[in-house]
Design goal:
Number of helices: 5
CATH topology of the largest domain: Rossmann fold
Shape: globular
Largest sheet: 5 strands, parallel
CATH class of the largest domain: Alpha Beta
Structural class: alpha/beta
Number of strands: 8
CATH superfamily of the largest domain: P-loop containing nucleotide triphosphate hydrolases
Oligomer: single chain
């Protein structure tokens, strides 16, 4: 039986004197994948951060989430002086600190086998993005909130990530992500157009 992992009820978001969004309602259940879609500046990232409890803006209404949440912002948040492996080892997951074996397996899943010892500062933008997304292949939260996860990925990297979303949902998790591009997730994907909640 599905379980509600995120509930957003009559949420409005203000940024300074501007009302970005109003009247947002959304219920995300285990096994579901949701895309927040809309143009630049419409408020997708602000809404996602509000869902994660990390809003930098005024939020009104009710947001209830499960305790087991993974949030990944648009920035990779990697330390340039650390290797790909050490960046992941220093990043605790929802299940505690990962092991070296788990980290190396995660890097292999995102086509970075052989780059375990490479310094993050020497990696390309696409490789840095894949290191950051390797966190999704470690034991982690049930509810994933991801901001533009497909940025800087090639077509193969996008396919790997889409398959991982489906795996996570089938295991009883849920994914909410923002993206400017359509995702190839078939009937697994639910789309909400954030612009319909525009406060302007």
């Amino acid at each position: 039986m599905s379980e509600t992992l995120l509930s957003v009820s009559d949420v409005s978001i203000n940024k300074g004197l501007r009302q970005l969004l109003r009247g947002v309602d959304l219920a995300v259940k285990s096994g579901e994948i949701w895309q927040l879609r809309g143009g630049n500046g419409v408020g997708k990232t602000s809404l996602l951060r509000a869902m994660a409890g990390l809003a930098r803006v005024e939020v009104f209404g009710s947001i209830d989430r499960c305790d087991d949440v993974l949030y990944a912002g648009h920035a990779t948040a990697l330390k340039s002086a650390l290797s790909a492996r050490d960046n992941l080892l220093s990043h605790p997951s929802g299940m505690g600190m990962p092991t070296s074996v788990e980290v190396d397996e995660a890097l292999a899943r995102v086509q970075l086998r052989g780059y375990e010892e490479a310094k993050a500062g020497r990696l390309s933008a696409g490789q840095k993005r894949r290191v950051a997304l390797a966190r999704l292949f470690l034991p982690n939260g049930r509810l994933w909130l991801l901001d533009e996860p497909f940025t800087a990925l090639d077509s193969h990297g996008i396919k790997v990530l889409e398959e991982r979303f489906i795996e996570h949902a089938q295991a009883g998790g849920a994914v909410v992500f923002t993206s400017h591009q359509p995702a190839n997730l078939g009937d697994k994907l639910n789309v909400i157009d954030v612009e319909q909640f525009s406060g302007e």
